[in-house]
Amino acid sequence: MKLRVLWVGKSRDAWVKEALADYSGRIRRYSALELCEVRDEKGAEAEEMRRRECERLERQIPPTATLVLLDERGEQMDSPELAAFIGKQRDSGVPELAFAIGGAYGFSEEFRRRGRLLALSRMTFTHQMVRVFLLEQIYRAFTILNGEPYHH
Questions:
Q1: What value does the mean pLDDT take over residues 106-120?
Q2: 97 CB contacts (<8 Å, ≥6 apart)?
Q3: Does 75 fall in a domain?
């Protein structure tokens, strides 16, 4: 199963880029991984920004991919539950699992209906941090699935 992680906007901070490179390298030991960054929208009303950003995200997601949207109103899972979810997708023959992180105003309602909603926490984090947290949790999930000591 291939993994795809998409987000809106550039990763600007050096520590974010470094962490993304670190965790993406770790994940690639277990699965093919593609990171996709789409341009954020500027100078429009919030709903129009959401619509345009989601159109850009949609163009990067193959029709056969299972989509998970990072959304504050989504389901919360602990790390073993996320591992079980990823393992179930892998074992059921899902060709690609795509995780999407929206822009400053989130996802359009239409796009939200397209995927499963997942919340990393009830707390609010910057979009830069969410990218790192998500990749770390995906890596953790693979170590759990493989019985490795990273998660204890």
A1: 95
A2: 1, 2, 3, 4, 65, 66, 68, 86, 89, 90
A3: yes
- How far apart (Å, rounded) are the C-alpha atoms in residues 105 and 42? 11
pLDDT of residue 135: 98
- The DSSP H or E segment spanning 19 is helix 14-27
Is residue 31 a part of any domain in this protein?
yes
- Token code pair at residue 50: 């959401």
Domain count, the chain: 1
pLDDT digits (tens, 9 = 90+) for 2-46: 999 999 999 989 999 999 999 999 999 999 999 999 999 998 999
pTM of the predicted model, to two decimals? 0.95
DSSP state for residue 103 in the 8-state scheme? B
Q: Classify residue 38: in a domain, yes or no.
A: yes
Output the domain CATH number for residue 57. 3.40.1280.10
Note down the domain range covering 106: 2-145
Nearest to 17 by CA among 137, 132, 127: 132
